Please model this.
Amino acid sequence: MSAAVLAVAHDACTRCACWADDRALLEARIAGLASFGSAWGATVGASRLCLHHDRLTTPEDRCAAFLARDGNAR
Model:
């Protein structure tokens, strides 16, 4: 695997402390989501809520605000 691929995986949203990997929280924070199905269905897929940006992100997304789950910035 190339170093570039490893870097993407290292600071991806799925590894960020701001990435709320909790579908119940997602349904609670997005009013009306249940009208599209639910946070457990295809409407959301692998996306989860970014608590920093207050928007849905995919596991592969990245941004400058990345904070590793252990509390250390990149």
About this structure: Residues 3-57 form one domain. The chain has one domain: 3-57.
